[in-house]
Amino acid sequence: MEISSKSGFIQQQDEKVFNFLSDFRNIGQLFKDKVSEWEATEKTCRFKVQNYPVLGLKIADVEPNHLIKITEDGQSPIKFTIVVNLKLQAPQMTNVQININADVPFMMKSMVEKPLQMFADGVVDFLCAYNYEY
Hints:
Number of strands: 8
CATH architecture: 2-Layer Sandwich
Number of helices: 2
Helix content: 10-25%
CATH topology: Alpha-D-Glucose-1,6-Bisphosphate, Chain A, domain 4
Largest sheet: 8 strands, antiparallel
Structural class: alpha+beta
Distance between the termini: 36 Å
């Protein structure tokens, strides 16, 4: 199953956005109201979502200032990839879009498709509103 978020524009340089997103220690605040047991290093994180087991993520690949590829840590029953695409449009304007590719059994697709779409779009909304002056 493939999910593409809406496209958003961040009023910041792609380098700042990339540096923020490529360190999981920075992004716990994205999920602070939705997860528990948050633990993070620069390249990995683990957390629990209500009614689901602990989930682990890792940064699998990067193209500096352009792409961050995140995968599950190998312990998830569902294999998936999250790709964050960044493209500088102007000196202080970066386009962001998130693509999720998940190996979801057919019977589960209707249950997870809408929540994944809402997740991807919600992350874009957060990134567009966030103050990157840290």
